[in-house]
Write a structure and sequence with these properties.
It contains five helices and four strands. The chain is α+β, with helices and mostly antiparallel strands.
């Protein structure tokens, strides 16, 4: 038997950071949670904003982060487009970011994700990307 408690903070954006998801945040969040349940992806918390998604995922013994992201991004873009929520073809940016979280860091990140709307009243998505990539020492060019 395998026992683990491994968490990841996964973050991805809409293509060109377009605010495509305005008014759809709740629907997309619910869809991603239901998709996660069907695909055995344990989503602890999810925050959908107009141009990006953050989630805290508990990894199981058979999934990789890339598989989880592919399922969530691919499934949600297909769902958005097949339901014609937008008058154009929706796409996520190809890239994504994943950061490991220790169990003791979960409550800190839950607060961070719960306050995303307030955070983005003063900060752009580019500000957030710069902050996260600096915090995790990732070489990323905006």
């Amino acid at each position: 038997m395998y026992y683990s408690r491994l968490y990841a903070h996964i973050f991805w954006t809409t293509q060109d950071y377009q605010k495509s998801l305005i008014g759809l945040e709740g629907k997309i969040g619910n869809f991603l949670i239901q998709l996660g349940e069907k695909k055995d992806i344990i989503i602890r918390l999810i925050s959908v904003l107009p141009n990006h998604v953050h989630c805290i995922v508990r990894l199981n013994s058979t999934q990789s982060i890339s598989e989880i992201v592919q399922i969530m991004k691919g499934g949600s873009s297909l769902w958005i487009n097949s339901n014609q929520f937008l008058h154009y073809k929706f796409k996520w940016e190809d890239e994504y970011f994943a950061f490991s979280l220790g169990y003791s860091q979960i409550s800190e990140f839950e607060k961070y994700l719960e306050n995303q709307k307030i955070f983005h009243q003063k900060h752009s998505i580019q500000d957030e990307l710069k902050m996260l990539t600096t915090k995790y020492n990732i070489k990323y060019q905006l």
